[in-house]
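Lab notebook, bench 4. The sequencing result for the construct came back, and we need a structural model before the next group meeting so we can plan mutations. Quick request posted to the team channel:

Model the 3D structure of this chain.
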Amino acid sequence: MAEHAPNFVTSVLCSDYWTWNPDEECTVQFNEDGTGELVCTVELNVFIASEFDWDMRSKAEDIATVLPITIEVAMTLTKRELKDNPPPIKHLALSDAAFEQKVYHLRLEKGSFKVEHRTTYGFHPTYEYRLIWDKAPYPPLEEWNNKPAAKAGRYWERNDFYKNRIENAE
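Done. Here's the predicted structure in token form:
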């Protein structure tokens, strides 16, 4: 069964985007072709809207097919623009170091996860899946050229993402 694990993990990881907050301003989308999208916005300000390349580093025999599981992925933020976002804002906001490959350990969990205190609208949804990163997918403070914006949002602390909102959850 372990030989099917990467397909299982990929299907869960790539089936939809992951969001940090209910407003869906900070999102990560993994695609099965080894690309993805990293978005970081606050209201009308777009700080990051970029594609990334990613690769599963965990070996098939090391991955279980039952959640929770922890996997290792390598991710490289690219300078490829997303189609529906403004032009090179990220080039101004981030240093060259932000575009170097980084390795992450991701814990994928299934359950009922309520997200609180992340919106000003009093909306606290519950999600079916949680993805916990050992460090945030957003660059650390030292990789931001626009430090006031980064400090205000503390994006480098955003390491838990959610998907599949559960309607009418208590």
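Confidence is low (pLDDT under 50) at residues 1-5.
Will bring this to the meeting.
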